[in-house]
Amino acid sequence: MAITIKDIANAAQISAVTVSRILSNKEGHYSAATAAKVRKIAKNLGYRKNFAAAELVTRKNRVIAVIVSAVKTNFAEKILEGIANSAIKYGYNIVLLYVKPNNPQSQRHALQTILGRLIYGVLLVSLELTDENFQLLKTTKIPYLFISIAVKDGAAFIGSDDFQIGYQATNFLIAQGHTKIGIAGMSNSSYIGQQRVAGYRHAMKKQQLLIKDRWIQFGDFTYQAGIQAMKNYGAATELTAIIGTSDLVTIGILNTAAELNLSVPQQLSLLSIDGTQLTQIVRPQLSSITQDFYQMGYQGLRALVHQAEKKLKSHYMPFQIIERQSTSQLKSKR
Amino acid sequence: MAITIKDIANAAQISAVTVSRILSNKEGHYSAATAAKVRKIAKNLGYRKNFAAAELVTRKNRVIAVIVSAVKTNFAEKILEGIANSAIKYGYNIVLLYVKPNNPQSQRHALQTILGRLIYGVLLVSLELTDENFQLLKTTKIPYLFISIAVKDGAAFIGSDDFQIGYQATNFLIAQGHTKIGIAGMSNSSYIGQQRVAGYRHAMKKQQLLIKDRWIQFGDFTYQAGIQAMKNYGAATELTAIIGTSDLVTIGILNTAAELNLSVPQQLSLLSIDGTQLTQIVRPQLSSITQDFYQMGYQGLRALVHQAEKKLKSHYMPFQIIERQSTSQLKSKR
DNA sequence: TTGAAAGCGCTAACAA
DNA sequence: TTGTTAGCGCTTTCAA
Fold it and tell me: Residue A330 domain-assigned?
């Protein structure tokens, strides 16, 4: 039989109510002396709070639903690790739900699973909800926060400033002398993709560089999208640099470029967005815009549980540019 | 205010107890007719069971702790996805804990976090506990199950038959004409590593092939371990085939072989163990022993919750050999 | 600052 | 097959 607050109350010769108040940190209802005594006894007895009992009466639980897109983005795990550690720290449990990418039904199913349980909040990791499912989420009144991928209409999220990512990636390549720069692999319908392209356009325009439509190759952030993009560019492309909008996209471009006998970075510079371990296990290693996914997860959960009462606001995480082997100064025009 | 069994009882003109029994599928205590009626009403009213209340009285909760090694094995995510879906299916929540690889303190911390909560069971994913920490786990009396990595002394686990993996990997290469075969990257202290090497030795011995000590290069399953192993073999190695004991190890070998001007598979065949997506994004694509990590996770949770009463027994998952581009028939002796 | 009483929603034990 | 009673461990009134 586990230790209860009654046991502590007996040992301390006070009522269970006071013990409860002390152990739940309800201030202003007890003296420091009794508090100290109670805490000491609790510790000695090895008391563990029965959360089920507490939840039953408070009608609040400490479960966060985490919905992850099962897409091959390969950075979700880092985010998850951050969320997990943060959850431990703040005393929350997790319901993990994986949804199939680009599958509204799967999304809907996940959301309904959540509705079926009393949960404290929802974290949506690299997930693009359909409008319909987003409405469903909003009607639940459960606090939610998007991580890494934002939705258009001002829903709170933690992620990177994707406009800045696109802008700075482009500027980095321009600074290396490139003028014919492509961007590839991002989803046309995603906010994140639109922002990156907007940043790219802005940088090009600012330097009065023209952009050809075909330089912008949309996709779905996957390895396949990278392959397709490079095939579309073709072996005779005039581009001297390409921004791959995910590590897998960039690797797809890299491998396809090799098939087309384009050498990286001599003939073609590649700059990848994400900066996961993948950038370092391919040859050449990929220069990248590196995001701190762990922190996104960690801060995401923290924000959700700390601000659930107030309105959640969006928050950008810093990123950095790391130069590896896939980019180089443009020597001469091809 | 949420719907409770009382509301249903009122609507159905019966007692709450009967409703409880029906909705909890306690058989043999009610007629099919009332059951049907109750279920229908429950559905119409949108009834959701209050798990906190149920847990309070049954003293059983539905939380599974999942402890994952944060090591760069890159297959943990698939296992996790399986666990997550399985948990949804069987109605369990998850506490996710990441521990640092090869860090007994981190392990201990995770275990103690678990002890602090009433949980139903523990799943340990690709984690090698120290003896001391394993003792700690055993003393808790909480059911546990290892996934993907086994411990020596007969603790229950779900994973692959690593002896068979080593054995069949070696036989595959022998069948291609190789006689000088190395194995690299596995941890010397891990059961999994020992088993794979044992399988390798057995296969070689059966074909009366000699093994040189230096053909067996231990490591820690990481990318770095692969690099180091290939450096140790050297450019002038007599080996014509190497088994990399994880995808990352094999990629490390691959990249280092390239640096040493050894071409794969013409001069050196590589066979990888794991078969994650990584095998397909490097060039050449890696032939592999492919394990079904998703199923390991899915079945693992299932086994834990279904057999918690009885003694859990170990269970092997099937694996398959998939030939890609990194292995080839041995043409001539080098 | 402390406590008594009541009840959260559910299920186990017993009774009918 | 169904119901009555009691209580899980905690927190929230309300009263002292």
Answer: no
Tokens (6 digits) for B199: 């399988």
A177 and A242 co-located in one domain: yes
Task: Decide: residue B57, CB within 10 A, 0-12 exposed, 13-18 middle, 19+ buried.
Answer: exposed
CATH number of the domain within which B266 lies: 3.40.50.2300
Q: Choose, out of A92, A96, A227, the residue to mutate when testing the contact with B (most B CBs < 10 Å).
A: A96
Residue of B nearest to A68 (CA): B81
Is A45 touching B (CB cutoff 8 A)? no
> Across the interface, do B255 and A223 touch by the CB < 8 Å criterion?
no
CB of A60 nearer than 7 A to strand D: no
Determine contact: B277 vs chain A, CB below 8 A.
yes
- Rg of chain A, C-alpha, whole Å: 25
Say how many domains are in chain B.
Answer: 3
Q: Count the alpha carbons within 13 Å of B21 in the hemisphere toward its beta carbon.
A: 14
B85 in A contact zone (CB under 8 Å)? yes
Query: In terms of domains, do A173 and A279 share one?
Result: yes
Q: How far apart are CA A248 and CA A279, in angstroms?
A: 9
Inter-chain CB proximity A278 and B281 less than 8 Å:
yes
At residue B184, what is the residue type?
A
Instruction: Return d(Cα A38, Cα A129) in angstroms, integer.
Output: 48
Cβ of B251 under 8 Å from any chain A Cβ? yes
Length of chain B: 334
DSSP letters spanning A9-73:
HHHHTS-HHHHHHHHTT-TTSS-HHHHHHHHHHHHHHT----HHHHHHHH----EEEEEEE-STT
Q: Distance in angstroms, CA of A56 to C1' of D12?
A: 12
Q: What is the pLDDT along chain B (334 residues), one digit of tens a residue?
A: 688 999 999 899 999 999 999 998 888 888 889 899 999 999 888 888 888 888 888 877 778 889 998 766 678 889 999 999 998 888 788 888 888 888 898 888 888 777 656 678 899 998 888 888 998 888 777 889 999 877 657 788 899 999 999 999 999 999 999 999 999 999 998 888 999 999 999 999 999 999 999 999 999 999 999 999 999 999 999 999 999 999 999 999 999 999 999 999 999 999 999 999 999 999 999 999 999 999 999 999 999 988 755 677 888 999 999 999 999 998 754 4
Structural domain that includes position B17: 5-57
Subunit contact A95:B76, Cβ cutoff 8 A: no
Instruction: Looking at the structure, tell me whether residues B119 and B230 fall in a common domain.
Output: no
Residues B240 and B218 in one domain: yes
First to last CA, chain B: 79
- Nucleotides of strand D lying closer than 7 angstroms to a protein CB: 1-5, 7-13
What is the rounded CA–CA span in Å between residue B243 and residue B166? 9
CA dihedral A187, A192, A197, A203 (to 10 degrees): -160
Q: Which residues of A touch B48 (CB under 8 A)?
A: 116-118
Q: What is the largest CA-CA distance in chain A?
A: 87
Identify whether residues B66 and B77 lie together within a single domain.
yes
End-to-end CA distance of chain A: 79
DSSP-derived pairing of the beta strands A144-147 and A121-125: parallel
Distance CA B10, CA B143 (A): 40
